[in-house]
Fold this sequence. Notes:
Layout: E1 3-7, E2 10-13, E3 18-25, E4 33-39, E5 46-51, E6 58-60, E7 68-73, E8 78-83, E9 92-99, E10 111-112, E11 116-121
Parallel strand pairs: 2-11
Antiparallel strand pairs: 1-3, 3-8, 4-5, 4-9, 5-6, 7-8, 9-10, 9-11
Amino acid sequence: QVQLVESGGGLVQAGGSLRLSCAASGRTFSSYTVGWFRQAPGKEREFLAAIDWSAVGIYYADSVKGRFTISRDNAKNTAYLQMNSLKPEDTAVYYCAAGPNLVSTATMYHFWGQGTQVTVSS
């Protein structure tokens, strides 16, 4: 069992940056792929990025490639999402998730955090 808690969301102006953290409990965190997703009001949950257990395999959605960077520190049981050049359309609730494979499909992730709100003002 893995429990995930996101933090680092907030209000930022367009062009600004935020770093989200995903703190995990459970000894098996280091064996899981971590994915980041977001969901805006009235929209489906969107895959953003994923990183495998070794941090060698990394996968980004085209919509965030070059602006967002995913990383992890297994010694700290934490994963991160560095978000730069934020736009108003990045406004959403951001979730981290853990699963066995480096995939973009939300249903393939077994454990989810509660989410953290990111609001980008224009």
